[in-house]
Amino acid sequence: MESRMKQAGMRKAPGVPMPMTLTADAWPRDYEWRSLQRQQWNVRASIQAKQTFNHIRSIVDGMEICPNPSKEFISLSIGDPTVFGNLLTDTTVRAAVKEVVDSGKFDGYAPAIGYQATRDAVAKYYSCPEAPLEAKDVIMANGCSQAIDLAITVLANPGDNILIPKPGFSLYKTLAVSAGIQIRHYNLLPERSWEVDLKHLESLVDEQTACIVVNNPSNPCGSVFNQQHIRDILQIAETHHVPILSDEIYGDMVFPGEEFISVAQLSRSVPVLACGGLAKRWLVPGWRVGWILIHDRDGIMGSEIRDGLIRLSQKILGPSTIIQGAVNHILNKTPESFYLNTINFIKSNADLCFDLLSSVPGLTPIMPRGTMYMMVAIEMDKFPQFEDDVNFTQALISEQSVFCLPAKCFEFPNYIRLVLTVPTPLMLQACQRLWDFCQKHYSSST
To answer: What pTM, to 2 d.p., does this model score?
Structure first.
């Protein structure tokens, strides 16, 4: 391959693996014969397409969402902090992007894994003595979702399994199942502020376990793990020699008095692929810039995982070049007041919801420690006319025009998830309507 590239006047880019070559022997022997036998149309969706299944969409799309026309519709269901227009990114962030656009220097293709300068900026921002990073340890991606997709795909083969939290972000399951990878849910414990059930987690590990997915801080729970709990998770991974995929898109979005600690900071030898991005902390989910941070100080992954991530990145030519050009400014020059204002607003709404819903008959809110969400338990036996949390949520929409996500979407029925980023007056209205709804349907006789 390299000799043919030289003849054509081409050279291999440094750090980019050579492509795989396909020989004639690799084709099925009856390929030519079969190609001659096709005499009618038979265009079918691929197996991967048929296996792709978004759990949230399948539930929500099947619901009868008919709001009460006499009441303003309040959606507490979408994890997009920009929906109501009350939370906007900082003006310096927008100015940086405008400057990049006006420069005309970022209008072309970038390397699939991202610009060197962008990767260097991300590495320097997230590097720390306990978990040092260089540009070669950063893979840029089209949002944190693509980063997670790349990380799962590089670690697991069809038939392998990955361990994911329950309740947990449904994308993990969607990506794995579509690729023929099995998922195993490990339990989170609501009575322990959503810590991992460590015994249950360890019981799921076997020889085919490709990785443990850790989401901290958590969507949908709003939990933030302490140091000891992260060490306990790492001990299981180390004992069984299983790498960790750490979803840290809500990293640093923790309430005052709490501390975000990256899994990689506490890892002694367990390799960690940490996924993050601009979407949540900088309030720009539509800008689609994410990254993978490769933490492998002991070289356990070798070069194969890095090369694999580069190969997979080449399927799509990375995130927006415009936003990449502004990443250094976004990371290093966004004023601290912006972060504080955002998290203080969310914390205020969390306090408000927790206080109000704690007195609602049949509901038990669990106070979050960060992110943008709150999980609320429903005593379904006190609402006998509703079959489950989905039915409960449908009725809440039709009567009160308040839309919360049923936690069945997160494999955890009989809970609802509230988004805490809506304007405070609407938050108050939503809580009052929840109170009215539960007061009407609550049955103390059951």
So the answer is: 0.88
